[in-house]
Specification:
- By secondary structure, the chain is mostly helical.
- The chain has one domain.
- The protein is built from seven helices and no strands.
- The longest helix is centred in the N-terminal third of the chain and has 27 residues.
- The chain is flat and about 70 Å long.
Length: 178
């Protein structure tokens, strides 16, 4: 057990050192540690506690998995968004959090197939919003390349309008509607 605890502590210390070195830019205090790691300090341990309690009760407290999964997922989303300052992209993780809790209930419970309906709906919404806002953020960073993008679209559009299609061996037959 001590090897696992030492390994986990070592990984956490390495992550903390890397974030302090790259994110806090030399000046840091207790306040800045709380600013960046409040989800790891306060939210994620509650989710881990719910999971630990479920397994400690010999898998009798199945109802602990839903709030545990929700709180753990919210903690991870908040931690990633806080460290990388990406709240505008990470907010769909809050839609995914209930899906994660319900998925744990489905996987560790009696496999009630009706749970898959809200799990799939919430996951699809989360993935859709994440994709839309991630693409929007990428395009927002490419706004300096807007003239090149417009020029490329115009060139491709003209090429599509004025270039003739090559005839190949399979397209020599005309369809009746052509």
């Amino acid at each position: 057990m001590s090897v696992n605890r030492n390994a986990l502590t070592g990984v956490l210390l390495l992550v903390l050192a890397g974030l302090i070195a790259f994110k806090l830019h030399g000046s840091w205090s207790v306040g800045s540690i709380f600013e960046y790691f409040w989800p790891t300090l306060f939210v994620i341990p509650v989710g881990v506690f719910f999971h630990w309690l479920y397994f400690f009760l010999n898998q009798r407290g199945i109802g602990l998995l839903v709030p545990g999964g929700i709180i753990l997922t919210v903690g991870l989303v908040c931690q990633i968004a806080t460290v990388f300052d990406s709240w505008d992209i990470m907010w769909p993780g809050f839609i995914f959090a209930p899906a994660a809790g319900l998925l744990e209930l489905y996987l560790f419970g009696n496999r009630n197939r009706w749970l898959l309906i809200p799990i799939n709906i919430l996951t699809a919404l989360s993935v859709l919003f994440f994709a839309v806002f991630a693409v929007g953020a990428v395009l927002g960073h490419l706004s300096g390349l807007k003239p090149l993008l417009v020029l490329g679209m115009v060139v491709i559009g003209f090429c599509m309008l004025f270039m003739r299609k090559k005839e190949n061996a399979f397209s020599s037959r005309q369809e009746p509607w052509e």
